[in-house]
Amino acid sequence: MTALGPGMYVTPNIRLAREIGGGGMGRVWLADHLALRCSVVVKFVSPEYAANEEALQRFSREAAAAAQVKSPHVVQTLDHGVTADGLPYIVMEHLEGRDLRAALEQCARLTPQDAASIVGQIAKALGRAHKRGIIHRDIKPENIFLCDHGEEMFVKLVDFGIARGVEAGGLATASGMVIGTAPYMSPEQLMAKPLDARTDLWSLGVVAFEVLTGALPFPGDTIAAVTLSIFQAPRRKPSEAYPALGPAFDAWFERACATDPDDRFASAAELADAFVAAANVPARAQIGSGSAPRTLADVDAVTAKLPTPGVTAGPVSASTFGAQLRPRRALWIGGAFVAISTVALALLLARGGETPPIAGPAAAPSAVASAAEPLPVPSTVVTFAPSAASSASIAPSAPTAKPSVKPLTKPVAPKKPGKHDASIY
Q1: What CATH code is carried by the domain that includes residue 391?
Q2: Residues sharing a CB contact under 8 Å with residue 110, sequence separation 6 or more, in sequence order
Q3: Do the domain assignments include residue 1?
Q4: Lowest-confidence region among 52-56, 139-143, 398-402
Q5: Does residue 203 sit in the same domain as residue 305?
Q6: Rounded distance, CA 127 to CA 50, Å?
Q7: Could you read off the pLDDT of 77-111 as tens digits, one per residue?
Q8: pLDDT at residue 264, as a whole number
Q9: Is 121 within the bounds of a domain?
């Protein structure tokens, strides 16, 4: 098999420029599309997996799923094929900006207004996917990309590498390993139960909690640790992690991450609408004018000049989202815990105490925070206040108040990622 290298032609119009990353089962290259006169990204199956049938099927599903969703909030798939010597590839649009994980490493947490924009746009992507029977199964900050789109904060969902159709049911691989990123996995995903669209809503609820508070609601980097956090640890409220948040967010999170899928929001659109109401911002807010930072990508250029800001969010009654949790929830949780205990005991006896492995998606998953090591929270939080006009993004403005609580940890120096972050593909 011919080695990949700069100048190699994937097709008559696509010429490789340089490798920009890789991991897991894939390698990612920046390339020139000679006919369109633009840069594209080409993802290849790693040569060592080229004969692995399961890897090839997952790779094909990734290409098909992203192409079928047809949403402006999903990374665009331009082509899919096999090179002359048999190496599968996917051609995708080249995104410039940063993923949400990189933004959180700089800001630690975002304002409710800014979070509402991100949740709303990802919900639109999921709504399109779910209507076509596709569940993503790996919603996390690393797979949420904040594009450099001038004045707008434009968000795209990436990496459909472990997406499956609802008709496929379970999530176990042919080798029997559970796949996903543990802290963002729903209870049914952790337990290898059949999945539907509501597993993605749980994951988006976890992301929203992390974006608002700078911490994970169910910490742990293994299936066992996260499962115990969900079923045994006291349910953590957003307002307990960051007291500036009101009871409306607590009620929203309780429903978004209800243990019983039947108690969650019925759709991505319903979840997003409820979040906007909790954030007390217009459903569509316009970008502000002036020199305020217009996207998260611009924050690092002006953060040092800002006075100490605070979080601005008007009071919203928790009864707005007062969907009564069903009495069967306790029975569901009890049964689930018995099942988990039985499986855990069997695994410990069979493996001598080893934790069940988690098979990562096509790209190597990033490290996640544990209970002992919460995400850093800086001494300032950038506030984005919306204007009254109508648009698709959230408008930032200068902050007006001091923080109502002390930061959880000391700030860390921001890490400035490059524009060609291969981990997003």
Answers
A1: 1.10.510.10
A2: 103, 104, 118, 211, 212, 296, 381, 382, 384
A3: no
A4: 398-402
A5: yes
A6: 33
A7: 999 999 988 889 999 999 999 999 999 999 889 99
A8: 98
A9: yes
62 token code pair: 């990734």
> Which of 78, 93, 108 corresponds to the end of one domain?
93
Distance CA 317, CA 131 (A): 31
Annotated catalytic residues are: 138
Q: Write down the residue that tokens 């929830």 correspond to.
A: 329
CA 343, CA 349: separation in Å to the nearest integer?
Answer: 10
CB–CB of 181/140 below 8 Å? yes
Find how far residue 413's CA is from the centre of its chain.
23
Q: Quick count: other Cβ atoms within 10 Å of Cβ 116? A: 27
Partner residues linked to 243 by β-bridges: none
The pLDDT of residue 307 is above 80: no
What is the domain count for the chain? 2
3-state secondary structure the chain: CCCCCCCCEEECCEEEEEEEEEECCEEEEEEEECCCCEEEEEEEECHHHCCCHHHHHHHHHHHHHHHHHCCCCECCEEEEEECCCCCEEEEEECCCEEEHHHHHHHHCCCCHHHHHHHHHHHHHHHHHHHHCCEECCCCCHHHEEEEEECCEEEEEECCCCCCEEHHHCCCECCCCCEECCHHHCCHHHHCCCCCCCHHHHHHHHHHHHHHHHCCCCCCCCCHHHHHHHHHCCCCCCHHHHCCCCCHHHHHHHHHHCCCCHHHCCCCHHHHHHHHHHHHCCCCCCCCCCCCCCCCHHHHHHHHHHCCCCCCCCCCCCHHHHCCCCCCHHHHHHHHHHHHHHHHHHHHHHHHCCCCCCEECCCCCCCCCCECCECCCCCCCCCCCCCCCCCCCCCCCCCCCCCCCCCCCCCCCCCCCCCCCCHHHC
Quick one: pLDDT at residue 1? 62
| pLDDT > 80? residue 202 | yes
Q: Look at residue 141 and tell me whether its pLDDT is greater than 50.
A: yes
Q: Do 73 and 196 fall within a single domain?
A: no
CB 139 within 8 A of CB 207: yes
* Band (164; pLDDT cuts 50, 70, 90): low
Among 38, 67, 93, the domain-final residue is 93
Place of tokens 């993004």: 393
